[in-house]
Amino acid sequence: MSLQDRLATMLRDVFEVERVGADDFLLRRRTGAPVPLIASERDLTDYAKENASDGRSALGDVGDDGTGVIAALALLSVHIEESIEAGGDVPVTLLTVKGHSLSVQRAEIRDL
Q1: 0.85 cut: is pTM over it?
Q2: Alpha helix (H) ranges present in the chain?
Q3: Position 48 in a domain
Q4: How many helices (H) and strands (E) does the chain have?
C-alpha cells in the first residue's frame, strides 16, 4: 500500500477523504469548507523518513513496522487534524506536505 493510501486511510477516521488528483486530496467534515491537501508519494516518503524517530518515540511500533515510517504518518494525520481544528475563526485553506514538514495556510483576517 502506498504512503498516500495509508495516510488517506488514517485521515478517514476523522474526515471524508476524496482523491482529486495524483497528489491532491480534499478533506471534509460535516461543517466547514473542504480543505485541500497536497501530498505526493515522494514528499510523504521524505516526511516519513525524516520524522520516523519522532513517530517511534511517540507511538512505538505501529503494526509490523519497526522503522517508525507508519508511526510518522500517524503523527502527520494527527497534526493535520489539529491544524484544521486549531484555527477557530481562521479556517485552513491549504495543507501541503513538502520534504519533511507540513505547511498550513489559513484564510486572511481582514479588519472591517
Answers
A1: yes
A2: 3-11, 41-59, 69-85
A3: yes
A4: 3, 5
The three-point CA angle 23-43-21 to 5° equals 0
In a domain, 72, yes or no: yes
pLDDT in tens, 84-111: 988 677 889 999 999 889 999 998 766 4
Using the structure block, give the residue that is written with the C-alpha cell 518515540. Answer: 57
| Residue 108 in domain | no
State phi, psi for 48 to the nearest 5 degrees.
-65, -40
Instruction: Determine the 3-state secondary structure of 22 from DSSP.
Output: coil
For residue 69, give its domain range. Answer: 3-98
Give Cα 92 to chain centroid, integer Å.
12
In the chain, how many domains are there?
1
- Per-residue pLDDT of 30-61, as tens digits, reads 777 899 999 999 999 999 988 887 776 666 56
Sheet containing 24-28: order of strands: 16-19, 24-28, 35-38, 92-98, 101-106
19 found inside a domain: yes
